């Protein structure tokens, strides 16, 4: 039976997608590898190959190190908080209470706005003096004029990470919710009859069954964090100083402002490697846990 | 009795958290309903109701034209994505051999590469193929960038929810591969198709990067690109009200879609992936 | 069976159509250019991409006036214009150039200024040679040379821009500063008076990091270029360094303004638009900005007051003040344009001093005209402009002689100072010099 249904000719179905993917995605990425060994400036087509100079240069001036540490902090904060908040929300929204539809809408709506729009809105939220946070604080007698979250070295990175978390929570919540809805009701009932309390039901029945959605959410947020670019670009320009300069933003700056496309490509290649290694390590680890859970 | 108070508490808790969540949007919405020159503190929610800012934003971004462009770009891209990736996922999910696994991972890898990094080689490739830069060029990139995640969703769903047995009757009927897929398998993929349409549709609708690179005529700009023009207005540098009105105009079509298809957005979003 | 076969054919046909339509659609976008017009001349669509802020609706020269007037004069020529914010513009134009898909006209900056500069782009062969156009002799020498490379003119400047200090005359009078500060000492004294009176002396939009250049170049004009006009030429040969005391001095003077609290302390949280808004609302007494922002800074805000404009005096007492005056950004023509004839027609009409379009342009142009015989538009700049013409004490904006990236490092490192890090003026200069060494190869 199977052999009749499953023929190798099925692979023709892959061709359209594969073709586009190869031509417009893989081939350009390979070109990036080529550029990483050159002094290409992004627009003059005659360039020289300069070996590993770009790679050593990246690590020499410490710029990459700053960008890397910013990116890792961003990712860590993003992964932890977006998932914890989303998980909590999902549990709440999964309860049999009224108006969950309305609540879910409220949780999901921010994901519909584009990064530019979100950047505009949050610039207002963070504005010193008359911004949203400053105004609320001033109701409680705190002087909002001194609150300068985006302009402060220590808070800027966390401020833009929060924006990304805010925008991302809706998606994560929905994925968790979908996972929770696969938890059979009778299993929970059985747990209750056996005298398990709410925590135990959560820990031993719900969480294991959520394993797949947890893996998906963690992986997506990990990739999202490592690829962080939008809010550094839209809200802070990587600043103050290099405080919000992520890997991707630094690559962008090198390529388009300093006209060092070769060097930017080299940093891009290093970043690919990093993202792929981190992500696959993580996914493998999660898969193992998922099986054993 | 106890359970009632507990429920009330839960309601209060959720409402509070979600109110915080939508507060920035509420402020923006209330500001957008103010007249252009009303610069009093936006925290005075809905203190004025005027459509002036919307009128300004509407004409300035040539809303109808931009809307048409956005619709065109998004609809074409999403249709092709659905067709191509559902097809691609079919053999990958069905055939259990090394090639399938390799293809699966190969597509998935694309997810980790950010497009901003690769833009120059991408544009050079497109140029090398003599595809002129036009209003429609971004579609190529929208499709390409949607391939990894969409094929991931489709593969997971076919593996977990479409048993081979459903194709048996068609096989007995002597139907070919093509017909089996389009007549039997594809309709069963509806739930995951909905989630592909939603996830990919939303990002394509909101993307400004590829549009900015490929489109040079104002008349061909979709909404997000038209929005860019609102950054910094010479005579009214912080025209928050108009800006926010533009933001909501830009998101309006998605919000309307969301209102009608809420169930699918929230419920159907992840059918494929979670079960996989 | 027949029925199902039909259905299947339909499906196949549908898929094929969709698959190919993408490729086809991408192909037909630009084919509508070459239909014949009524009088036999070709109908042509020219494209222009520029950067900057939009003026009020219907009054933006590039977006509204120019296409309309061109079409009135040449019914067969349609001009499509797109305006993007600076950062987006730079990304987009470079990518388009690299792909050979650049518009017919686009924004360029003089010498090596900014990311799309005359020297870089002409070296790459992207710019059409405009030397022979008849109106070139009408442009002042300086503006023409700044838009040239190797003796060929590649761009037309919008005009001349000055950096300066816009100030609120009412607030100055209120604290008893009656005379415009003429040297650094009196500038500091005036700022102190404003601060003591509880008025924010200066506001800057440092969240948009290029704002840092607006103050820095005015000071450098006094500390660096007044003593050595060829500083940057020598920099290129290695004779001078950005770490020399003169540049360090400019940076430390600028630093002083932040340390003494004269510049609004939240400037890193304010973008250009917010900073400008604070100034026109009367919430700050001064702002460093260029003449190109005339419409923004003279727009009506929450407060009514009279504006003034003076060069930031970075000079010692008794010395003359030097100003930062430079050729403005402008327009260049794509070397690979398919419609060079029409492009030239447009330019010749636009820059013919007697044409209606030229007059309209002069009227709407905030920059000071670089065309001979065109009087100064805006009285606000009268004093500074006369000083510039009579004394000749001025230097260009420093970044125009550096590879792009050096100014970026100035911004990043100086941003650290504003942000209260322990970065010193020497650190800033060092970072600039090392970026210069990395990027300057010739």
How would you sum up this structure, described in words?
Chain A has 293 residues and is mostly helical. In chain A, 70% of the residues lie in helices and 0% in strands. Chain A has 14 helices and no strands. The longest helix of chain A has 32 residues. The model of chain A has no long low-confidence stretch (mean pLDDT 84). In chain B, helix 3 crosses helix 6. In chain C, helix 8 packs across helix 10, helix 10 crosses helix 17 and helix 16 packs antiparallel against helix 17. Chains in contact: A-B, A-C, B-C. At the A-B interface, helix 1, helix 2, helix 4, helix 5 and helix 6 of A face helix 1, helix 3, helix 4, helix 5 and helix 6 of B.
Give me some keywords for this one.
heterotrimer, B: 276 residues, mainly alpha, 0% strand, globular, C: 442 residues, alpha/beta, six-stranded mixed beta sheet, five-stranded mixed beta sheet, disordered N terminus
The greatest interface here is: A-B, 88 and 89 residues
Order of helices and strands of chain B: HHHHHHHHHHHHH
How many β strands of chain A by DSSP? 0
Count of DSSP-assigned helices of chain B: 13
Counting helices, strands and paired strands, the structural category of chain B is mainly alpha
Distance between the termini of chain A: 35 Å
Contiguous runs where pLDDT drops below 50 for at least 5 residues of chain A: none
Main beta-sheet annotation of chain B: none
- Overall, the morphology of chain B is globular
Cα end-to-end separation of chain B: 41 Å
Q: Tell me the Rg of chain A in angstroms.
A: 24 Å
* Overall geometry of chain A: globular
Number of strands of chain B: 0
Estimate percent helicity of chain B: over 70%
Poorly predicted runs of 5 or more residues of chain B: 272-276
